[in-house]
Amino acid sequence: MDKPLKGIRVLDLARVLSGPHCAMLLGDMGAEVIKVEKPGEGDMTRSNLPKFHGESTYFMAHNRNKKSITLNFRKPEAKQIFLKLVEKSDVIIENFRAGTMEAMGLGYEVLRAANPKIILTRISGFGQDGPYADRTCFDGAAQAMSGMVDITGDPGGAPYMTGTYIVDYTSALYAAIGTLAALRSAEQTGKGQVVDVALLDAAFSMLHTAVPDYFMLAQEMKRNGNNDRYMWPANIYPAKGNRWVYIHAGMEHCYKTLMQYIGHPEALDDPEHGATRAARSSDAGKAFNDALISNWTKQHEADEVISAIAPLGIPCAKVNTIGEAMQDPQLHHRNMIEKYRRADGEEVVLAGSVIHFSETKFDSKNAPPKLGEHNHEVFSEIGLSEAEIAKLHENAVI
């Protein structure tokens, strides 16, 4: 069966993480993604360390299943070439600061004149309008401004950012979803549109109940370490050898099962600490149950803890190191660690696609492209001759 997005062409003008990742997701699903980069430099992450055989692993992580062409938008010829590509494309993805495309002479009205069905997916720090629209923003700034950083970490301790660029990833997902919806709309109406996604909006959307709690209950969400926010006991507990395990026994049957297994059935009848959900949710109840569980877990290896209680239906996991996660049999079974072939025949190992279809197979294994690797192929398709391509290269247009 053909891939879901076969026949869709995407022009990827984005750089760094959110935009390129969004475009990569569409490429995984079968779209032809053409990454448009600056001649000689390309996406700024091509220079990021560390590198594998001269290629940045940062760039690799977000640019598989793409073609690369180069265009120097400081040259007037580049704009005309780009508009020829727009005529034959369905989606443009960019993550410049708001107003940059307009300053380049490539605002949406110009793009739509070239192709009425074109979809312009715009990812920015704060959106295309509003008091912060002209500010520069990275993932960490969005985390900080949204309140996400303030609710992460130990109570009374310093706030913490997440260990990865969670807002960039989430923005990429929202943008991909919006793009798919816009493609469906264009199919029905014959009209394209702008998809506007902001990092701050994406970060704010992940605050769970913080919004209704603040406005309707006058409660402000606070840091609470590794505790679950709504059911207890649920925390990260110590095991032998300075290792850690996550256990969630907040549901009634899980709590009863765990307390019986670790030898503390009396907790089930303790009115102050364990008999009810309200008792377990009090500060005293949390401390009491965490102590019981910790005293048990620290007597055992992490793997022993998981082997013992996972079969009982209690949600739990060893806190894996990155090295252990890379060897996890479930991740390998789900093809989350895959090899992609580079143009020179060499293979690189990257994360696989999260989405699995019952009929459609994601068999694209094209490694991230070399800078300008597909110039000749793509420019030939829009009618440029060998001589014209050579002259564009000579004049530093491509």
Please tell me about this protein's structure.
The structure is a single chain. The protein has 398 residues and is an alpha/beta fold. The protein folds into two domains: 262 residues, 3-Layer(aba) Sandwich (Rossmann fold), CATH 3.40.50.10540; 87 residues, formyl-coa transferase, domain 3 (2-Layer Sandwich). It contains 17 helices and 13 strands. The protein has a six-stranded parallel beta sheet with strand order 5-2-1-6-7-8, sandwiched between helices. Strand 12 and strand 13 form a beta hairpin. Helix 1 packs across helix 7. The longest helix has 24 residues. It is elongated.
Features:
398 residues; alpha/beta; Rossmann fold; formyl-coa transferase, domain 3; 2 domains; 6-stranded parallel beta sheet; 3-stranded antiparallel beta sheet; 17 helices; elongated
Secondary-structure topology with pairs:
Elements: E1 9-12, H1 18-28, E2 32-37, E3 51-52, E4 55-56, H2 57-61, E5 67-70, H3 76-87, E6 91-94, H4 100-103, H5 108-114, E7 119-124, H6 139-146, H7 166-189, E8 194-198, H8 199-204, H9 210-217, E9 234-239, E10 243-248, H10 252-261, H11 277-281, H12 283-297, H13 302-309, E11 316-318, H14 322-326, H15 329-333, E12 337-341, E13 347-351, H16 375-381, H17 386-394
Parallel strand pairs: 1-2, 1-6, 2-5, 6-7, 7-8
Antiparallel strand pairs: 3-4, 9-10, 10-11, 12-13
